[in-house]
Amino acid sequence: MTPIINTGNIDRKKRISQGVAFTIFKLMSYSVVAMLILILGFIVSKGIGAISWDFLTKAPEEGMTKGGIFPAIVGTLCLVAGSSLFSFPIGIMSGIYMNEYATGNKVATFIRIMTNNLSGVPSVVFGLFGMSLFVNTMKFGDSILAGSLTLGLLSLPLVIRTTEESLKAIDNSYREGSLALGATKLQTIQKVVLPMAFPNIITGLILSIGRVSGETAPILFTVAAYFLPKLPTSIFDQVMALPYHLYVISTSGTDIEASRGIAYGTALVLIVIVLIVNLLANFLRNYFSKKVKTN
Amino acid sequence: MKRFFEKLVEGALLISGSITSITILLIVIFLFKEASGLFNSPVIEDGYVLAFNKDNPVKKLSSYQIKQIFDGAITNWDEVGGKEEPIEVVRLSDLTKYYTEAELGANFENIPAKASELTAKHPGIILFLPNSYIAKNFDGTLLKHETLRPGDFFGGKEWYPTASPSPQYGLLPLLLGTLWVSLGAILLSLPFGIAVAVYLAEISTMRVRNFLKPVIELLAGIPSVVYGFFGLVVIVPFLQKTFQLPVGETGLAGSIVLAIMALPTIITVAEDAMRNVPRAMKEASLALGATQWQTIYRVVIPYAKSGITSAAVLGIGRAIGETMAVLMVTGNAAVIPHTLLEPVRTIPATIAAELGEASAGGGHYQALFALGCILFIITMIISISVEFISSKKYSK
Fold first, then answer.
1. What is the ipTM of this complex?
2. Nearest to B203 by CA among B282, B303, B311
C-alpha cells in the first residue's frame, strides 16, 4: 500500500518554511546592529572633526558657532554627581528593604508597583513636577539643586530595580549560613549579602549615570541655561548641560548651519559618555562574574 | 541596644522604600494643583474686555467662537445665535479708521468716550479693548467674565495659546498627534522587536546572543536628544527627498525615530517572556515531530502572549512619553493630523517647547500642566494595564 500522504514532501515544505522564517529573523536581528552602526558611525564620522582640546576646554563663542562646550561638560558632571548623591543611597536602601525585609509581602508588592509606575512616568512630567515643587514651591529657583533632585527621582526606579535584582540573585543559603552562625539580620546584610551583590549593584549604578547624563526634558525648566560661560560656584547656580546644549544649537541657535559642527561634536561627546558607561558596566559584569566562578 | 539599632535601620530602609510612592503622590498633587486653575481662567486675555452694541441679543461667546470671529471665519451674528447682522471687528488699533488722531486726543484721553460712542452707533460691532479704556458710563454690553469650559479644553480642536483675544487650548490636535505618532512607531517596531526577541530567545547561539545583547543595551542607552539630532540631520532630509515633501519634519519622521527608541524595550520584555516558556512544553512539541519553527509559532509565541502584549504596551508607553526626539523631528504644527506625512505636534513636545514662554500661573501655564496631567494619566493607565496583563500570566 502506498502512503496517501507523501511525508517527504511535507518535511521539505516544513524545512523550507523554517529556513525562510529563521533567515528573516536573523536578518532583522542583524539590521538592529546595522542601525546602531549607522547611528554611531554617522555621529562619530561627522563629529570627530569638531573634537579638539579647545573644544573640550573652552566656553562657546560668537553665538555658539565657535568655541567649545566646557561649561556644558561641567554642568552635566554637576548634575550627574548631584543626582547620584540623592538617588544612590535611597535607591540602594529601598532595594535592600524590598528584597531583605519585605520579601514577598504586601508592602514589597506595593512598593514594586509604585516603582514600576514611577519608571513609566515620562521625563517631561518629571520636568513639570520638578519645576512646580523644587523651583517654585521650595524656591530653589533654576538651580543645580532643583535639577539634581528631579534627575535623582527620575533615576530612582532604575537604581532600586537593579539593587533588588542583584540581591535576589544571591542564594538564600548564604543568608541562612550567616544567620545560623549567630549574626543578626543587619550583620548578615552588611557582611555577607551586600559584598556579594556589590558588583552587580555598581553595574546598575553606572548604567543609571549614563541615563541621567543624557536626559534633557527634566532639566529644561529646572536648571538648564541657554548660554552661561561662567562655571557654577554653588548648588543654587544655573548650569549649561550637554543634552540641552545639543538641543538648542541644533534647533534654535542663532545660526543653525554655522553651529552644525559644534552640534556634531556635542552629540559625539554624549555618545562617548554612553559608550564608556556601557563598556565599563559590561566589563565589570564580566570581570566579577568570572571572579565569582573561580572562587 | 543592638536590637534597637536594627529596628532603626529597618525604619530608615522602609522610609527610603516609600520614596517612590511619595513621589507619585507628590506628582499627582503638584500637577493637578498647577493645572486646577485652568477652568477658572478667563477666555479672553487678562486685562482686556470684549464689548457689543447693547441691542445685540448675544450675551455669551465661547472661546472658540471668539477666535473664529476675530479670524474672520464667523462674519455674521446669526451664526452665534444673534440677529442677522454682519460682525464688525474693532481692535484698539482699528479705532484710527473711525476717528482721526486729533479726535482721539493727543494722549488718547478721548478713547473711552469714542469707544462708547462707536459701540452705540454700530449694531454689529465687537470691540476688543484694554480694561482701562472702558468708560464708567460705557454705552454697550460687556461680555460677561467667562471662564474656560472643560469642553473648550477636552473637545477643543485648536491649540493656539498665543491667539488674541482668545487663546485656544484645545487638547484634541495634540492628543491625536501623540497617538498617531506612537501608533506609527509601534507598527514599525513591533514586528521587528518580536522577530529579534524570537531570534535571541530561541534561535541564536549563545555567542551571537552575547554579541547582540550589548548592542541592544547600547541602543537603549543613547540619549533621546541624540536620536532627535540624528533624526533631524538624517531621517528628516531623507523623507523630504523620498516623498517630495515641502518639509521633512513629519509625523512619520517621529514614528521612525520612536520606533528605534522603543525597540530595546520591546525586545527585552518579549525575549524575557519567551525565555519563561517551560522547557517541557517545547520539548513535548519537538517530540511530537514539530519542527523548531512550528514549536516557536504554535507553542512559544502563544504561551508568551501576555509577555509580548506587555512588551507592546510598554513600547507604546515609551513612545507616548518621549519628548526631545519627537520635539526635534515632527515639525510641531498643532493641527489635527490626517496623514503621517504632515507635521504634527505631540503632548510632551508641546510642554517642552512652550513651558519656557508661559508665565507662571497664567492660563497657558495651567493648560500645559493640564497636558502633563493627561500624559501622566495615560502612562499610569499603561503601567497598570501592564501590571494586570503580567499578573494574569501567573494566575493561569
1. 0.90
2. B282
